[in-house]
Specification:
By secondary structure, the protein is mainly α. The chain contains 16 helices and no strands. The radius of gyration is 74 Å and the shape is rod-shaped. The two termini are 90 Å apart.
Length: 556
């Protein structure tokens, strides 16, 4: 049943109240007419008593005649009749009053019934009106609720539309911003590509100029070599002619002195044996003297190092070599533990030659790699084998080993397949020296302005030994710096790992960002990578998380 908006009407209580009111009115009317009838009856009786009482007294005192008696009887009868009539009238009046009261009561009952019916009808109408009002109120409430729901739905729709419009506006703004950022990024990328292309063109031109200069130098060197060969050939031809002439003269002389040939031959043979024995003895004595000088210098150097560690180990042998051609290389005091190289990895250096180098203060590959031609001449004469250092390519081997590379001889020694003993100090024959030269990788060409930079250029290879390393795994080296390092002959992590302070200084100056290599720790990174370890940066590069084309910093 739907709820009513107004107060609920108690119909049964309302009906009972109306009936009770009508019954009260009826009872009140009944008692009122009863009281009226009693009053009327009492009034009539009082009137009869007053009328009959005085007349009876007067009859006793008067002597009446018969006619008075008759008259009295007549009057009595008349009074009785009058009383009867009045009684009848009173009874009739009372009956009429009763009937009137009953009629009134009936009328009252009818009126009460009519009033009740009217009241019931009115109450029914009121109930119906109240129900209609309640239904109307419920309908109005329902309509209001519907209107409220519709209004709320319209508001929600309006808010959703406003939010959608705001979202569309925001998305449009974001899309516009993203498009602007994309255009800016594309422009920046295009500019970076343009700059990279320009730098690459410039680098290509510089490399082409370097290659051209190198080619011109090579052609000039070849022309010079051809000329020198021609001159040497002419000199050899002249020498051969002289020798041929001398042979011919000797043959003529021998023919003329055929009689004394046997004696001369015997004397010559004996003299040759004497000369050969004397020469061998002289060479051995000279070598013993050199070794004695070296040993004495080593002992004196050791004594000086004990008194003053800063003095080079070769200070004591300086006086012994002042007569050698060339210039003596600078030596160092014994390096710290772990920084002494195994010089026996150089083919041509055995235990004895290594001790001789140590006596000169030479302990590391980079020292031999830095020798100048004059210094190589000096050391060759000092160790009693002039020209051997150049013929056995000590400097080239040392440069490769100092840069982190390996020769076949060094690999064999490290693997243990070749034992270095006293025979390693013996000179190489011509065929072995030529094979060694062929096995060494070609060195990188000189670059323009190489001598203008402080420090010393590191040893470079004309091409990579096997597969080149990805130098971009070193933080600070991007594609452009990698190309410039390749132009210097730097292809492998081991080469950078072997750089000395002078090498770092030279490369920093050449690449026009002095101090950056130390600051970004290129050498330390290269050592880890050369040892097979990954750095945090190299892992990011391998995962493709580093835009190396934008992380080059080639301009410093």
């Amino acid at each position: 049943m739907p709820e009513r908006d107004g107060p609920e009407i108690d119909v049964s209580s309302l009906k009972s109240s109306r009936i009770g009111s009508v019954m009260q009115d009826f009872v009140a009317a009944y008692w009122m007419w009863l009281v009226v009838a009693l009053l009327v009856g009492g009034a009539i009786g009082y009137w009869l008593l007053r009328r009959l009482g005085p007349q009876g007294g007067r009859a006793a005192r008067v002597d009446s005649a018969p006619h008075e008696a008759v008259a009295l009887a007549e009057r009595t009868r008349a009074a009785v009749k009058s009383a009867q009539d009045e009684a009848a009238v009173s009874a009739s009046t009372i009956e009429d009053a009763r009937l009137a009261v009953e009629a009134k009561a009936a009328e009252v009952t009818r009126i009460a019934a009519s009033a009740k019916a009217a009241e019931d009808a009115r109450l029914a109408i009121e109930v119906k009106a109240a129900e209609a009002a309640r239904i109307a109120a419920a309908a109005k409430a329902t309509e209001d609720a519907r209107l409220a729901v519709d209004a709320k739905a319209a508001e929600v729709t309006r808010i959703a539309a406003a939010a959608k419009a705001a979202g569309d506006t925001r998305l449009a703004g974001e899309a516009k911003t993203a498009e602007a950022a994309r255009i800016a990024t594309a422009a920046e990328s295009a500019e970076a590509d343009r700059l990279a292309a320009a730098a690459e063109v410039a680098e290509g031109a510089r490399i082409a100029a370097i290659a051209k200069a190198a080619e011109e130098a090579r052609v000039a060197a070849e022309a010079k070599a051809v000329e020198e060969a021609r001159i040497a050939k002419a000199a050899e031809a002249a020498r051969l002619a002289v020798e041929a002439k001398a042979v011919e003269e000797a043959r003529i002389t021998a023919a003329a002195k055929a009689a004394g040939a046997a004696r001369v031959a015997a004397d010559a043979k004996a003299a040759k044996r004497v000369r050969t024995t004397a020469a061998a003895k002289a060479d051995e004595e000279a070598r013993s003297v050199v070794e004695a000088r070296i040993a004495a210098g080593a002992r004196e150097a050791a004594a000086k190092i004990a008194n003053d560690p800063g003095v080079a180990a070769t200070a004591s042998v300086a006086d012994a070599g002042t007569s050698h051609p060339g210039s003596k290389p600078a030596g160092i005091a014994a390096p710290p533990d772990g920084e002494t190289d195994d010089l026996k990895l150089i083919k041509g250096i055995g235990p004895k030659n290594e001790k001789a180098c140590n006596a000169l203060g030479i302990y590391q590959f980079r020292q031999i790699a830095d020798w100048t031609p004059d210094e190589a001449v000096w050391v060759g004469h000092h160790m009693a084998f002039p020209g051997r250092i150049e013929r056995e390519h000590w400097i080239a081997q040392a440069r490769l080993l100092a840069s982190g590379g390996e020769t076949e001889h060094a690999r064999a020694v490290k693997s243990g397949s070749l034992v270095v003993d006293g025979s390693a100090d013996e000179p190489l024959d011509q065929a072995s020296a030529e094979l060694l030269a062929q096995s060494l990788p070609a060195q990188a060409a000189t670059v323009e302005g190489e001598d203008k930079h402080a420090g010393r250029r590191p040893y470079g290879l004309a091409s990579a030994v096997g597969q080149p390393d990805n130098l971009k795994k070193i933080r600070g080296i991007g594609p452009q710096n990698e190309r410039r390092l390749h132009a210097l002959g730097i292809w492998h992590f081991s080469q950078i790992a072997a750089w000395s302070e002078d090498n770092v200084k030279w490369v920093g100056s050449y690449l026009a960002f002095a101090g950056r290599i130390d600051r970004e720790k290129w050498v330390a990174q290269a050592r880890d990578l050369a040892a097979g370890k990954d750095t945090e940066f190299s892992r990011r590069v391998a995962a493709g998380k580093v835009a190396t084309s934008k992380d080059d910093g080639a301009n410093g």
